[in-house]
Write a structure and sequence with these properties.
Two copies of one chain form a homodimer. The first copy, chain A, is of the alpha+beta class. Chain A folds into three domains: 193 residues, no CATH class; 127 residues, Rossmann fold (3-Layer(aba) Sandwich), CATH 3.40.50; 75 residues, no CATH class. Chain A has nine helices and 18 strands. In chain A, the strands form three sheets. In chain A, strands 1, 2, 3, 15, 16, 17 and 18 form a seven-stranded antiparallel sheet that branches. In chain A, α2 packs parallel to α9 and α5 packs across α9. The radius of gyration of chain A is 21 Å and the shape is globular.
């Protein structure tokens, strides 16, 4: 990674940043109250094992748009902050399984994606340097023996096939005392993982086969309402508005009408908030599958008519899911403009924040040179340049301006942890049926 | 701090580094076993709140010579690793007092030492950035109101007088829910601290008024015997031999004979180990007060005759203690050569390692231009140049040579944590009377 990438932070290319500066100032001034509030929440609802949260910074608002409980992309973090990851990992593993010593990391199925393999290798190193023996395993009928991937000079990654002896899962001859999932289980919980004697984290029922984005944002809405009330913040400044539609069949054009109506209502709702804050921009809505990491299609629309006149190709894309399922439920999310740009080319830059347990351990920007401010930069097949955060997210400096680097990163870390708290509540609700 | 100070690591100026390279290689190869062993020990005996450990690196051995449970010098740590300190502090405070929100830091008495004030300010910032309200208080009849120290442009430090309302200690009008001691209580536990309703950490009975160095090294000896047995390491390679003498009165020349005899025995013991390892150096012994941070006098001797012929001035110095007490008990510690040097002037450099809870969070070298390899660089009034560790101590790199920077720092961190474990056992013994 070029050194200059570590030295700067994207610019906000909008004059509409009054509310954000106010928000950043407030978060900075209220840091001890915020941290005390979060500590209280983690006592009630422990944080997930790890997570990454995609943020959008529009200058006039900043909000999470996706919370991944099986994060990849660890290779994009600033190597200078690996010690922070190692320390947080030690704390989290000891809390999850105090006597663990052998750890199995379950990777995505059938992956040969070099970026993902680099992320796995970084995650393996973080756990290993924390003082654990680590092996990586994967599901798949094609896994007949260990698979060795060469990553670079002297670096390799071995993925072992998984098997089961009674109640114990093993990878090759390695019997773990703790299993860490880095597989979003998009196709459901495999029989090999059921009723194991070994602890698994995050719990397999948080896999995307069962999890709904709308459920996450329902929890997120409650989190930011409570948080906003504590601090006197309009929750809209830190959340995307959303709606969802069920019983869809894009191919048969079933539910199109309902979808168009929801888009219309949501656009109006966004419009009213834009008016309130004097935002002179066109509201837009992002439509994606409610289940699954992402559908094959993600649409960004500014008019309900756009969902009524989908062509055959668009309908096919919107209806098919990663992993092969059929999309019958979508989430309509307020589109949040991305007004952070990087470099002379003013490439759009989106922050992604990483957490291990309740600790923010780093992040990076997805810098994209080809897409616009309204588009989704995490779409399938998307290429981006990672730009590691130059500083940590836990070291704000009250003597500097509210949007100085360490303070901007602190803001990111607060918003990302609010999304993490929503995920923690999702997890708790799954286990209590609440 | 000049940038070049962060870029390099002192050199070992000895050819006698065979055993150390072997030791470093072993620690690196056995990292997961070491960490698993330490985790098991921390479960049995929780680590102290924080500590700093002075190490000596002779090339042929590396050993702790002092373990401070009320550490100063936080200002000398690499600012790049403050996030690591903040995160460890958050974890430790939550474990010590989950609901804490207001924290009182008790400083040394009557201090105007600018270096100590900088350390206090750094410690305050670490706790504050962890998300707590912090105030600093101090004892002393001269403390009639808040005292404001200006530290630099825009930075100040306020020290409040302490008072008591019933079972609660307060600093000014600030009532803490947790009290952190950064005062070694050399003159005993002040009445203000007795039978408080608020938790205090580290416990006041670990203050130097009650703690004995020989007790620490008795625990340390047991720690390294167990550790050495686990890994097949001669414990001598990581511990200083020691003895102690009681019932001394330097001024009346009482106990001089016993002292000389112990020096002689210890020198012989060291000599035998030097022979065993082919170390062609003169054994020496360091004599210091067994209680207290340090006596006013610290002697380094190579011959028993040197303690029989003390002149009046030497006897006065050896008998008086910081805080005004009389030294009647000394520890005789194997002198460990310092073969780490820094810069073209080959200044002697001694590592000091910092821990918060069980986490190694950084360290620095005391670089001294005027003293020799046998002398104590932490003597009263000593000046040194701090040289912050360039890397963290938890990120070893098995692909590099065993004494590459990150691996040397990992070694320091292991040895320092063995001393920390000894301190944890001291603490546990105090509370069980064991």
């Amino acid at each position: 990674m070029p050194v200059e990438h570590l030295q700067a932070v994207p610019h906000l290319t909008t004059a509409l940043n009054g509310p954000l500066l106010q928000l950043e100032s407030l978060l900075l001034a209220e840091q001890t109250r915020i941290e005390a509030w979060l500590r209280g929440e983690w006592r009630k609802t422990p944080a997930p094992f790890y997570a990454s949260v995609d943020l959008r910074n529009a200058g006039f608002k900043i909000a999470p748009v996706d919370t991944n409980l099986f994060p990849a992309g660890f290779n994009n973090l600033n190597p200078a902050f690996l010690p922070l990851c190692i320390q947080a990992m030690q704390a989290k593993i000891e809390q999850t399984c105090p006597t663990a010593s052998n750890i199995l990391l379950i990777a995505e199925d059938h992956t040969r994606n070099p970026f993902y393999l680099e992320s796995l290798a970084t995650l393996r190193d973080i756990i290993h340097k924390g003082g654990y023996r680590v092996r990586i395993g994967a599901f798949g009928a094609d896994m007949t023996g260990p698979r060795v991937h060469r990553l670079g000079p002297g670096r390799e990654l071995t993925i072992d096939p998984l098997s089961r002896q009674g109640d114990k899962l093993q990878a090759g001859d390695f019997v773990p005392c703790l299993i860490i999932l880095n597989n979003d289980l998009i196709s459901g919980v495999p029989p090999l993982l059921r009723d194991l004697d070994q602890p698994i984290t995050p719990p397999p029922d948080l896999g995307w086969a069962l999890r709904l984005k709308s459920e996450h944002f329902r929890h997120y809405r409650r989190v930011v309402e409570a948080f906003g009330e504590q601090l006197g913040i309009d929750p809209w400044l830190i959340k995307p508005l959303y709606r969802h539609c069920e019983g869809l069949d894009f191919l048969r054009r079933e539910g199109e009408h309902c979808l168009a109506r929801q888009v219309e209502t949501l656009l109006e709702e966004i419009g009213r908030k834009y008016d309130e804050y004097g935002v002179d921009k066109q509201p837009f809505v992002v439509i994606k599958a409610d289940a699954g990491t992402y559908g094959m299609g993600i649409m960004s629309v500014t008019d309900p008519a756009q969902v009524r006149n989908l062509n055959r190709r668009q309908r096919t894309r919107m209806s098919s899911m990663k992993g092969g399922g059929r999309v019958d439920r979508v989430i309509l999310q307020e589109g949040v403009y991305t007004f952070e740009t990087w470099g002379e080319a003013q490439s759009v830059a989106e922050p992604v924040v990483y957490m291990i347990d309740r600790f923010v351990v780093g992040g990076f920007y997805r810098v994209h040179t080809e897409r616009g401010q309204q588009e989704n930069l995490n779409a399938p097949g998307m290429h981006f340049q990672p730009l590691a955060f130059a500083e940590s997210c836990n070291n704000p400096d009250e003597h500097r301006s509210p949007d100085a680097e360490p303070n901007r990163f602190y803001t990111y870390g607060v918003i990302a942890r609010l999304a993490l708290l929503a995920a923690a509540r999702e997890m708790a609700a799954l286990h209590t049926g609440g």
